[in-house]
Amino acid sequence: MDNPIDAAWSRLPDYLAQHVLLSGCALAAGVLISLPLAIAASWNPRLRWPILALAGLIQTIPSLALLALFYPVLLAASELSQRTLGHGFAALGFLPSFLALTLYAMLPIIRNTVTGLAGIEPDIREAAQGVGMTQRQSLLKVELPLAAPVIMAGVRTASVWVIGAATLSTPVGQTSLGNYIFTGLQTENWVFVLFGCAAAAGLALVVDQLFGLIESGFARRNRRRQVTGLLGLTVCVMTATLPLTVKARSDYVIGGKTFSEQYILSNLIVEQLAKHGLTARQSSGLGSGIILHALGDNEIDAYVEYTGTIWTNAMGHRDNPGRQVILREVSDWLKLNRGVSVLGSLGFENAYVLAMRRRQAETLGIRTIEDLARQAPLLRIGGDYEFFARPEWQALRQSYGLAFKSQTEYQSTFLYRAVAQGQVDVISAFSSDGRNAASDLLVLADPRQAIPPYDALLLVSPRRTHDAAFGEALRPLIGAVSVQAMRKANELVDGRGASPRQAARELGKMTGLDTSRRQ
Amino acid sequence: MARVAISIEGVSKSFDGGRVHVVRHLSLRIEEGEFIVLVGGSGSGKTTTLKMINRLIAQDAGEISVLGQRTDAQAEHELRRTIGYVFQGVGLFPHMTVAENVAVTPKLLGWSKAEIDSRVVELLELVELPAAQFGERAPHMLSGGQRQRVGFARALAARAPVILMDEPFGALDPITRSTLAENYRRLHNSMGLTTVMVTHDLMEAVLLADRIGIMREGQLVALGEPKTLLKAGHPAVRELFEAPCRQADEFRARLEGAGVDG
């Protein structure tokens, strides 16, 4: 089967190409915007402070937040252009990443250009005027060439920043070397994480050296160094982005959120489509706040969502009127508000649950959340990044009067480590997670039904609702995935280090979808 | 009757909104072919006056004309292309070669490449820095004296009839200085240039100038041929002449006392 290093290598051409394309475009745009701004700032001292302050302010925004912020902004802009011009644009993927990284590239370039221009001796500037140059000629023929080494040093710094920050564009749907890191982190594939880090660092190092060559070429007025560096950069960018030109266009895009089950299911869907001769690519690792919008905007064609998530997060309900009512209302709401259709339930549920170490639960005599509530003030709870902000947690606290000694957030992989090692006593978990059994955790019953059902639904974008071939290919998945099978597949990834693709194949076999075997 | 090359009429300049005037009601007519040297201590306004001629500094009041045209009635950069300027501290562009530095103004004027190339060769020959040997060098590879010669070549490159020089020999050793000064004076004569030079060194002024203008607190306190100036006995003139004359006397006395005679 796939060995993780081979699997990592096989993705390198695509990830690297996208990463290089994104960073290159952002850096180029950063230079194009920053240079005029910096020149304006050095010509007009009154502009200088606001420009530098603004660039500095952008830099203080964490890069991941900057990337995430562009999505809603672009979405609004896209809707506006849809209304006024008649067509919108993709608010996910390349554009938000590109814009955020461009902003990110600006500070070092602006700062160095301003510094470089300020460092030119007044005598030289006077000489340029004295021989009859206009202000523009003085800038282009004298000041910029003299400031070039300092400016290039800024571009060099910016390039390293951008290449590093570009790994964070994965959650907004842009493929990058960050896909290794995010996938690896979610599926505990440390080979992937290391591979992604090494690839991004290696790329940054090569680019840094080449820009260093150009920079020293300017400093020593050595044209050969400048040309060699520039040529090296061009060759690198062209070689790296070559796979993009030969890449086959795929018919469909399947979305997935940032946890193992989602990676496995998007693989399962892609394989299922392939069996019907339809090509699809995955847009994995999407933030859970973004993904439903992406589907509604036809940026992805299908993904698996859970009824409870829509019921509480998107629709804002706090109650639990029962499985059938929720399923019906969720379907109606999706159709009405997002134009999204529900193809059907996959057949399992993945609900938020509370879990604790079986031995501790038995010692304390805890079986249900009601039992837990009585002892909670002495216990520590851990949750994933979303959990404590979600309405489910509010509902649990209100129904049972839960109050814990402490509350900590973990990335979901580390959440299981934390409970196994006793750093926390109770964790937020998912009912279909294979690690509950593997870590010998007891899932606590919810007798008051504070948490709504979380049936896994296969959702289809408005554009694909009447796509018969697509629907036909996906229909066999409906009702085919049992919670036992899903748990086993999750456990393969989370506990045994299998890739999501391997787990998806196993899941396909378990559910009897793997028709290719029978032939 | 020689024509007037530069006319300065009642010019004033203040850098602090009128409280202190660096130049006050200054008037001066310079004829074509003349070599005028402005002398004065620091703060006397001599450099400001020079820079107002090519509008590196704009006057607050008064009129300046160069070759019959008012300097404020034309684009600054076009004016400056018709006036050669030799800078204090040379002011060569460090990122350009010697040849590129000399070619700057002709290029701005849009000369053809062939014209520029032959002009550069001609001028570098003139300042005794043959293009074949020195043309491709960077300014930092030259000695101070060589750099200043490139500075002269650059000022002359566009065939400007008027040359302004701001302490052109200030940073050079005495021997280089006097050779260079003599050579320039010869060029001035043979090319029929009009030159305005600024210096604080009276000896230099006496050796080079047709007329000397002495400046003090923003005003031209004396103007005339070196000989007549000395005879007229203006207090400011005497003051300026006293120090070098005393030095010369002392110099001679010491050498004689030591038993060295020429």
Question: What does it look like?
Answer:
In chain A, the strands form three sheets. In chain A, strands 7-6-8-5-9 form a five-stranded mixed beta sheet. A three-stranded antiparallel beta sheet of chain A has the order 3-10-4, sandwiched between helices. A two-stranded parallel sheet of chain A has the order 1-2. The longest helix of chain A is centred in the first third of the chain and has 40 residues, at 4-43. Mean pLDDT of chain A is 88; it is low at 515-519. In chain A, strand 1 (252-255), helix 10 (260-275) and strand 2 form a beta-alpha-beta unit. Helix content of chain A is 63%, strand content 10%. Chain A has 519 residues and is of the alpha/beta class. In chain A, helix 1 runs antiparallel to helix 6. Chain B has 262 residues and is of the alpha/beta class. Chain B has helices spanning 46-53, 76-81, 98-108, 113-126, 131-134, 144-156, 174-191, 202-208, 226-232, 235-257, and strands at residues 4-14, 21-31, 35-39, 61-66, 69-70, 83-86, 162-166, 194-199, 211-216, 219-224. Chain B has ten helices and ten strands. In chain B, the strands form two sheets. Chain B has a six-stranded mixed beta sheet with strand order 6-7-8-3-9-10, sandwiched between helices. The radius of gyration of chain B is 19 Å and the shape is globular. The mean pLDDT of chain B is 88. Chain B has a domain at 1-76 and 195-262: P-loop containing nucleotide triphosphate hydrolases (Rossmann fold, 3-Layer(aba) Sandwich). Chain B starts with a strand and ends in a 5-residue tail after the last helix. The chains are: A alpha/beta (519), B alpha/beta (262). The interface between A and B is medium-sized, with 16 and 24 residues.
